Amino acid sequence: DRVLEMVDGVEVSPMLVTGDTENRGTEVHFMADPTIFGTVEYHYDILAKRMRELSFLNNGVRIRLTDLRSGKEDDFAFAGGVKGFVEYINKTKTNLHPTIFFATGEKDGVGVEVAMQWNDSYNENVLCFTNNIPQRDGGTHLTGLRAAMTRVINKYITDNEIAKKAKVETTGDDMREGLSCVLSVKVPEPKFSSQTKDKLVSSEVRAPVEEVVAKALEEFLLETPIDAKIICGKIVEAARARDAARKAREMTRRKGVLDGVGLPGKLADCQEKDPAKCEIYIVEGDSAGGSAKQGRDRKFQAILPLRGKVLNVEKARYDKLLSSEQIVTLVTALGCGIGKDDYNLDKLRYHRIIIMTDADVDGAHIRTLLLTFLYRQMPDMIERGYVYIAQPPLYKIKAGKDERYLKDDVELNAHMLRLALQGSELVPGENAAVISGDALGELARSYLLSRSVIDRLSRLYDPAALEAIMDGVAIDLSNEASTEASAKALHAALHDEALKNEVRVVPSYDPVREQRSLHVERTHHGNVRVSVIDQEFQHTADYQQLVATANTFTGLIGEGAVIKRGERSMAVSDFKSAMKWLLADAERNVSKQRYKG
């Protein structure tokens, strides 16, 4: 068993032999370097999405993702490769045909894998990957796929006179309506348009993709005539809808809706004409619109009330979209048009579009529908940062003449801490220097951060054990003797708790993982709850926070310690009681109102 530590790609020390093991493989521990990355926040959903992709793209690979902050865990062991990926994408949709099209092959050193299935939605969802790297903007592999689809399906439709009977002409866009597809290519030396690798520009990739897909798709249509008939029926229906949308668009254009002639009657417009200085609030209902109009600054703030439910554009075609009163009103107010031929973001009348719905279930639904519309029809508006969501406050806090609206519990706790620290000072002991101002604030924030860690981890670990660590009980799991000593120290710290609920701290060793740990076993009403403090937990930021707090507060409070706030004071024995008194004293003169949410 060997260990090698590196910093910035340079060895810190030579490779060390730590013992014998029968395990095989390499285990890598690393953290994002804050000197290189602008932000080092780890978002579980983003990581889970990427791990899921890799599990599908590398058939047979198992990936386990664990968040030690919240205890959330996922085990990605998906089978089926890109075919299984398409099944996963379509699992919440209604599939039109049972058989998933799948093609794989290699041509000129380029490996191609593709899976496709049509569903009853109206949007194209094609995921492109090169050497497991996603391309958001597609590239030459996507061009090859589309060319093969258009050529083969058009030939099939022509040979069977499907379009002729339906009296429509089909296009490539019609063929991709409702399509879910995963395209993965393996290229020896790929070229991308930028460092983010969002688009593949290797010209040699198009021909292999087009050839592999065309051959397999032609066979698929001939060998599965039932699926082919359903797919072609969907394409013909899309062509008819496109034709109807064109006629509806022409009619709407004649009425002046799409070119911004005339504004909706309910729009309370602003006086400013520079879009960069203007903002529009989309509010729910006429009553909300009335109160919003009273509170606005008419110089640069416009109000647009929308009545009733907004059309779900995810389940509606373009012609239905243009017949929706709310959608037409919104498009007219924004002034940038809609659709491939009429949309022009440069004509947008407001560069801040604020969605301000009620703080209830209906409001959340309407907000989701509006965001869906903007995402599907005007995505670059979101990408440029023009769209905002108004977040209704959860609390109103009044202290004297000062009124504050606070978004959530986090803001409430931060505000209450600010109030508690005003005019406060801590005398940590007789003849000790007074702690106040920023110094007291830093101590308070460090303590409350550790308290929030304990509250969050209490589902996974024994809360009393976590408090003991924060109070200074050192946990050393480096060898058998230190593990035994740590178990005794932790049990001694939990002894008072054991009077009510029997507790045991048992040292343990896992020969497979070669790790030592402490098992905290607590019996409550006959049920035994076991929480494990191991070396993995010791490597987490949460554990380090508890240890840092222990180092800060150990020995801080001595005999005769007093906490003061204004004219009031109280003798304290530890920082916990000091914080409890400060926050309670701050709440005495505060009026708190909680809104629905």
Automatic annotation (TrEMBL):
- Signal sequence interval, chain numbering: none
Instruction: List its EC numbers.
Output: 5.6.2.2
Q: Which reaction does it catalyse?
A: ATP-dependent breakage, passage and rejoining of double-stranded DNA
Q: Which domain of life is it from?
A: Bacteria
Q: Name one GO biological process term.
A: DNA topological change
**Does the record bear Membrane in its keywords?**
no
- SMART domains given in the database record: TOP2c
Q: Which InterPro entries match?
A: GyrB_hook (IPR049353), GyrB_insert (IPR041423), HATPase_C_sf (IPR036890), Ribosomal_Su5_D2-typ_SF (IPR020568), Ribsml_uS5_D2-typ_fold_subgr (IPR014721), Topo_IIA (IPR001241), Topo_IIA-like_dom_sf (IPR013760), Topo_IIA_B (IPR000565)
Q: Which UniProt keywords apply?
A: ATP-binding, Cytoplasm, DNA-binding, Isomerase, Magnesium, Metal-binding, Nucleotide-binding, Topoisomerase
* Short name of any one Pfam family annotated for the protein: GyrB_hook
List, in alphabetical order, the Gene Ontology terms for molecular function in this entry: ATP binding; DNA binding; DNA topoisomerase type II (double strand cut, ATP-hydrolyzing) activity; metal ion binding
Similarity comment text for this entry: Belongs to the type II topoisomerase GyrB family.
For this entry, the protein name equals DNA topoisomerase (ATP-hydrolyzing)
Please tell me the species this chain comes from. Burkholderia stabilis
UniProt lists the gene as gyrB
